[in-house]
Amino acid sequence: MIFNKDTAEKTAELLLQINAIKLNPENPFTWASGWKSPIYCDNRLILSFPSIRNYVRDEFAKNIEKQFGKPDVIAGVATGAIGIGILVAESLGLPFVYVRPEAKKHGRQNQVEGFLQKGQNVVVVEDLISTGNSSLLAVEALRNEGANIKGMAAIFTYGFNVAEENFKNANIDLYTLSNYENLLDLAVQKQYITEEQQSTLLEWNESPSTWGKEEE
C-alpha cells in the first residue's frame, strides 16, 4: 500500500529521471533469480542526488510517524537500505540498526548490527520489494532479538501477488513511497513509454517468473 498518491507519483517521476528505474520491454533485463524483466530498479542511485535523497528522507520520516507512530528505532535492511535508513533515523532523531542477510561467521556473529533492546518498537526501512522474502527474513531476525515490529516502509514495490501474501502471512504492514501501478501511469503520462509498452509491462507483472521464457 502506498502512503499517498501524490508522493507515489512524485517518487516515480524522480526515480525515472535519474534512471534508478529503467523500463525496456523490447530488451529485457535478467535478474539474479533468472527472471526476465522489462524493468530494472536500483534505488541506491538516490543517494548520489542530494535533493532527491532529501525528498525521500523527508517523505519517509513524515509518513512513518503518521502511519506507525514514532518508533524507538529505525532498522535498515542491508545493504540497499542502510544509507537511506540512516538518513531517516537522523531526521527523526532516533537510533539506527541494520540487518545483515545472515549472521556473521566471525567475531560476535551478529545479524542485527547496532544497539537494540528487547521490547523496543521498530520500523524497518527497505529500498525495494520484489517477493518480500529477504525483507521478511530481516523482520524475523529483529523479532528474534526481541523487537516489536511496527511495520515496514519501502521506496518502491513491484506489487507482486506473492509479496502481498508473504507480508500478510508474516502479519507485517507494508507501506511504500511508490509502486508499479503509479510508475506505469506516470511513465505513460510523461512519455517514457507508450501505451503498448505499458501493456507488455502489465503482462510481466502478472506472471514475472514465466514471462519471456516462451521467447527463448
Describe the structure.
The protein is α/β, with parallel strands linked by helices and 216 residues long. Helices cover 40% and strands 21% of the residues. It has one domain: Rossmann fold (3-Layer(aba) Sandwich). Pathway: Pyrimidine metabolism; UMP biosynthesis via de novo pathway; UMP from orotate: step 1/2.
Helix and strand topology:
Layout: H1 5-17, E1 21-23, E2 29-30, E3 36-37, E4 39-41, H2 50-68, E5 73-77, H3 82-92, E6 96-99, E7 112-113, E8 121-129, H4 133-144, E9 148-157, H5 161-170, E10 174-179, H6 180-189, H7 195-206
Parallel strand pairs: 5-6, 5-8, 8-9, 9-10
Antiparallel strand pairs: 1-4, 2-3, 6-7
Helix pairs in contact: 1-6, 2-3
Pfam families: Pribosyltran
Keywords: Glycosyltransferase, Magnesium, Membrane, Pyrimidine biosynthesis, Transferase, Transmembrane, Transmembrane helix
Cofactor: Mg(2+)
Q: What keyword list fits this structure?
A:
216 residues, alpha/beta, Rossmann fold, 10 strands, 21% strand, transmembrane, transferase
